[in-house]
Amino acid sequence: MAFNTFSYLLFLPVIFLLFLICTDRLRWLLLLVTSFIFYAFLLKPLLLFVLLAVIVISFFFGMHIEKAITSAERKKFLWFGISGNLFLLVLMKYLPFTSSRIIAIGVSFYVFQAISYLADIYLNMAKAETHFGYFALYLSFFPKLLQGPIERAGNLLPQLKAKYAFDYANFRFGLLLFAWGLFKKVVIADRLGVYVDIVYNNVHAFTGLPLLLSTWAYAFQMYMDFSGYTDMALGSARLFNINLTQNFNNPYMATSVADFWRRWHISLSRWIFDYVFEPLQMTFRSYGKWGTTCSLLATFLVCGIWHGASWCFVFWGLIYGIYLSCSVFYRPFQKKLYAALGIEKARFLKYWRIFVTFNLISFAFVFFRSNTLGDAFYLITHMFTGKKNLQPAFAFSQGKYELGFLFMAALIYVCICVLRKNYDFLSFLKLSPFKKCLAVYSFMTIILILGKFHHTNFMYFKF
Amino acid sequence: MRNTCRLVFLIIGFAIFYFTVVFILSSIQFKGLTLLQILTADKIGPGGWGHSLLRFRELQNIKNVDILFVGSSKAYRGYDPRVFQTKNYAAFNMGSTSQTPMNTYFLLKQYLPKIKPKVIVFDLDITDMAMDGYEGILDLLANIPISWELLEMSVATGNPHAVTNFLGKLIRDQKWPLASFDQQNMKNDKYISGGYVETTIDSEWVADDNIAKIKILNNQLDYCSKILELAKTFNIPIVEVIQPMNDILLRSIPNYKTIADHLKNSAMKRSVIFIDFNNTMHLDPFVDYMDEFHLNQKGVLKYNTVLLDRLMANKVLLPRAVGPIGTH
Amino acid sequence: MTHDEIKNKVTKIFRDILDDETIVLHDNTTANDIEGWDSLSHISILYAIEKDFNIKFILIEVKQLKKAGDLFDLIKSKTP
User: Fold this and answer.
1) Which domains occur in chain B, in start order?
2) Which of A8, B84, B163, B287 has the CB geometry, 3.0–4.6 Å to B89, for a possible disulfide?
3) DSSP states of A39-89 as a string?
């Protein structure tokens, strides 16, 4: 079930209450059963089998990698484990027979997580888990089951095993973080989606400004949607005293594409860097910059394909491969240029770089969002052409009031961000009970009135 | 114990706060819509698109209905009472914009005791059944009086906006009563007594070739069954029909056959007559339709004539002496 | 080779590769402390070290490196 539904809002408190009254020894079992029930709500029994298969394969091979004596044996078990997992992923997502019948929600995430587990054991960065129950929970833990974050064994397993003691600060923080994520998703992302869909589902009806504006809008929609989901996941997990990895760090403040990938979908980018890029780079290290280039192209190809079996995603990935490959070559010259102009520390340079990076990202998003490659090429060739009239406003005038609403939602978001920055969570807690109550009531009212509850699913659901 | 009291107190406090905000926002109107409607992106005001204002006003005073049509815009644009009048049947069209089976169920619950039709014709719109009924309820919230069933419908959509807008309506209708509104004139549409909307558009439209598999919501299927059971409780025969769809629309729904078969089996299980006119009728996409979804007047006349004959052939409607209008 | 000799040699390599004469390395220095030392340049730096010290790293070893001090110790373990 999606986080922004009534069912989840009922499900979470019920599970939490059961968790509180459960004995500590069996809490892992409660969470494990809950996670499978949560997955079962998708009404696709096949997915439950896939999850179970991934758990069993990874548990089994994880133990064998660790017990193996020779390095060749370790490698063998590693590759068997990875192959088994990848086979399931390919079967569910990329073969026309299965992928057209079932949307394999969650599979990409927990398969990658399982592979990271096996690789970490092989690289001596983690120990194989001997308790099947905890291991199963590590892969299936419901807050992160459907859309990540992709958790490392070293981070999540110890937390799952730790003794639980109710922590009011964590409980409160978890709920507020959840509410914040909900706001981002239903008030900002879904509203933005209305405009984006109008243009992107019918691109040939538009030229010029609407194409550009809806692409920028999509960049924000995607960020709000996915970071909103992440906040809801992290908030839910926090109730159980579990700290999941943060997936975002102000991505649109990135000053370069490389910087962007350190701030966007961090658990995935760390995965592809640790398990694809770095090993490839090590292999090709004697080829210098060209070796790095090949590694980058391959890595981002994987990143693109992971998102889905479509040429649009492949293109999207390749674009980033090209961006980063170019940067490998031009970075030294860029540095020299800034030094020569004496502007390396200039403030405006930082903002200029942010602006350029944001546009590079938005350009790539054209491919990510477009329904077909044809649409994407149409978009980029018609974005700056077309009649210079107020037709661009058409995309927003479908509902004139909606534009006004959107500015208001953006304003509220900015206000809350500023408030959070200047008056952090702790000072919020120091407010009088009445003021705190009022603030929370207002926030919930804003979500209920300005939010979009109609027919939406998280965008990363389909990856 | 103390914490439970605190929690209850907090929830009640929120309800009061929320209602106050809704009250304030519903008391400010701007270009025919309240501020609440603008913020929740509910763009439908009284007397707007769909002619539901006139339709449900007429329904308040109706004396006799032989055939009641229910469904979405396909229904209110698809069944011309004048055709049925030729065989002396008083037909009424209770379709409304985006009316899904969920909306239909609560409408029937409210109006069947009042109207007591001899037959219900339930127009199945499969593209509609992929929706949750929220859009359907907006038309009704704007145009029909407050009722308990309307509240039930709002809650049943599972969408907080539906309940919020219902609360808003409570306040709005006090300040700006429904009776004070007039039906707006819709270009190309003419309201015909009996709930029907006749279009003057022949076929000035462009085909939109989007292929999409329709996923019918399970709860809409449940409501289809509930409607059949409701009709049974009132002892009113009900017939399910799928009107002849535009070829272009049909082609764009790859799983049409599966859905139609499912609906048919569901009807047969309850011994309800189910007629899919797509198996027996074929109308011209550009001559008989005003757009992808709706028949134009030419198409309506053709379809209604065939439907009337089928209903009489199936003995759903018994022949009546055709005399001067008003002789029965 | 002593720890300090290794440190000096590695610092020189960092300065060359990252084109920054101001770089100073301590045992606790991490990638966050040095501008330009990121995943893109990391392996180039390691390769240059391999060439200079005539040693070879393997992936498992590279993965264990958390700070500069670890790198110095690794090099020391591989050099006579």
Assistant:
1) 47-136+180-313 (3.40.50.1110)
2) B84
3) HHTT--HHHHHHHHHHHHHHHHHHHHHHH--SHHHHHHHHHHHHHHHHHHH
